[in-house]
Specification:
GO molecular function: hydrolase activity, acting on glycosyl bonds
Helix content: under 10%
Protein name: CBM-cenC domain-containing protein
Order of helices and strands: HEEEEEEEEH
Number of strands: 8
InterPro entries: CenC_carb-bd, Galactose-bd-like_sf
Keywords: Hydrolase
Pfam families: CBM_4_9
Distance between the termini: 28 Å
Structural class: mainly beta
Low-confidence stretches: none
Largest sheet: 2 strands, antiparallel
Strand content: 25-35%
Strand order of the largest sheet: 1-4
Length: 194
């Protein structure tokens, strides 16, 4: 997702998410490959590492881990890495961008309307009756008015329109803040932990 220039070093980073099957101790084979360079192009790699996310992604000692379900939503953690956000569909490209002092996440080249940005949440925090405030700033790049909303999804089900911006947006609206209090119901509270 970067512009590469011949003979110059380029920092690459990304997110690797392991499924339960992939992380199973009986799965003894994994490989990482750098691919898709054109034939005949030499690729040099330096300082390759795979690490856990930075300490800032975890609650501080003594802080309730359920007090903030999504950490790093302001885009100010971990350089270019988009963690804890990823795309919910295989196509498209999620990147972290900067305008002035504002860091934000962008999903480019979306092939379908259901392609979006996602973040996993700790389902152990979802207890019936707990109320969370869901808030985000959104900017769309469309000349036609579009609706956007937050959706909870889990294996075998989903809950759409958990919160929705009050009006449709176009590119002329710039950043719009959307916010709503949301109370956890039985359908979310009974989901198994990821």
């Amino acid at each position: 997702n970067r512009d590469f220039k011949y003979g110059e070093w380029t920092v690459m980073d990304g997110l690797i998410e392991f499924t339960a099957d992939e992380a199973d101790p009986t799965n003894v084979y994994w490989y990482v490959g750098l691919v898709d360079a054109e034939p005949g192009v030499n690729v040099t790699v330096s300082n390759f590492e795979i690490t856990l996310p930075d300490q800032a992604y975890y609650p501080a000692d003594g802080v309730d881990a359920c007090s903030e379900l999504v950490r790093g939503g302001d885009g100010n953690l971990h350089g270019f890495n988009t963690y804890p956000f990823s795309k919910n569909y295989g196509e498209g490209t999620i990147v972290k961008k900067t305008e002035g002092t504002n860091n934000y996440f962008s999903l480019d080249q979306r092939p379908y309307h259901w392609c979006g940005i996602r973040s996993y949440i700790n389902t152990k925090c979802l207890q019936v009756g707990l109320t969370y405030t869901i808030s985000y700033k959104l900017r769309v790049h469309s000349t036609s008015p579009v609706d956007t909303y937050v959706k909870f999804s889990w294996q075998g089900g989903s809950l759409s329109h958990v919160t929705q911006c009050a009006t449709q947006q176009t590119i002329d609206d710039d950043w719009v803040e959307c916010s709503r209090d949301f109370t956890v119901d039985e359908s979310l509270a009974t989901q198994p932990p990821d």
